[in-house]
Amino acid sequence: MSSEIQNEEKKRDRGTEEMDYDDVNTLTKVAPKFRLWLELKDKSLSEEDKALLGKGGALLLKKIEETGSISDAIRDVPSKHGARKKSGLSYRYAWGLLKKISDRLKKPIIRKFRGGRKGGGSELTQTGEELLRYYIRLENLIQATLADKELWEAISFKLLDKNRLVGTVVSVMRDPVAAKVKIELKIPTTIESLITSEAVDELNIREGDSVKAIVKATEVMVVKAKETL
Hints:
The protein has helices spanning 3-16, 47-50, 55-67, 70-73, 91-105, 126-147, 149-154, 197-203, and strands spanning 38-39, 51-53, 110-114, 120-124, 164-174, 178-185, 189-196, 210-215, 220-223. It is of the alpha+beta class.
């Protein structure tokens, strides 16, 4: 058999080859990660010039607040060039970063002083403290949101069966803008949903129809489809 024919057969084999993977939902193997940074709300600036504070800068501010010293703080802040430097930022880089943030805010975020047992130190100004607190609150909020499965359900990423209530429409009261749909559930109980009149027309909702009420944190939605009957 010629080498050309063998190559063609190998190509065909590769094209029809099936990989043997576990039959597991892909999304169970992944997790969201994020890097938060703050930027100025100024459309006249470039994306680079809008950048204000990221994770490294926030950590630097936090360490200055804890130690009262830029020199002590930079030892605990990883360098961006970690592969080339063992640990910590250079004093020049840290001071340049602090100055850049202050210049862009047009307010100082750091205050240096002399005297004391150590011969001086540094502390955050009120602006620096407010900026750090704001960053930390946002970071904690995002982390809590990503970890809260019930919250994800509430914002419609996923709705569990317990949020779906099957019932029968007993009345539809409408005006030119909104409509109130009263649904008798099979539990039995009756709930009301305030939806737009346009939605009533689009779903063709009539008394006696079988519908499914989807309960969210702030509203009761109505779905009418064959699978809900």
